[in-house]
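Reopening this one. Same input as before:
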Amino acid sequence: MSRDWTESFFRPEIFTPGVPEAVAAAAAETAFLWKALGLKKGSRVLDVACGTGRHSVRLARRGASVLGVDATPAYLRAARLAGARVPNARFELGDMRRLGRNGEFDAAINLWTSFGYFEKPSDDLKTLRGVARALKPGGLFLIDLADVRTIRRRSQSRSWNRRADGAYVLEESVYSGGWDPKVANTWTVLRAGKAPLRSRFVVRAYDRVRLSAVLIRAGLTPVKYWGGLSFDYGSSGPAGERLVVLSRKSGDGRAGAASR
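Same output, byte for byte:
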């Protein structure tokens, strides 16, 4: 696992998935996930990478049995605190390339571009194959990434943002194409009275064709696409900024898209 992915960027001082705007959006996103995945009380769900658990805990409160896996101990501490009174939400420290689960889950999720940070494309494939193994026959997997078109629009960009804790963040990104397109990001965090923090990380850029191809190689057949975590972004609806793909574990003899 690369140092950038586990230690440089995914740490609370630089980035946390539990920022107020993300938490505010989580209730509607969870409602979308519940319907898109056809979940019901007792459904077993794998959340990779779960971050601070904002979706895991909400799914569990609806009645699903959820296992959240993440590589950042600080995020898991926050997730366990959020789910302290939700016994059907469990959280585990782990590497998404080595899930070690077999046929246990009805559904799995990977949200908000928590994928593509590994140096080698083969590690992305290894992750997806692990997800496929973890699913029961016919199990569903929903992945949510920044669409490559969005990445291109924002390439060569510099922007300042102010976080809820008062820190200022300079975000810089550069897109590079070729056979393995990526976006290189540099974040600089300025906090009052403290030394600046800087993190550089690279994310592999996927479009629908490329992501579908690697899902199929992993044993996951794409059945539905959206442009965001909402039914407002249907395959024939308005274009969104994200690439959301629902796929089914292959080899079970069932076909067709999940109903809306």
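So the earlier flakiness isn't reproducible anymore. For the record, Residues 253-260 have pLDDT under 50 and may be disordered.
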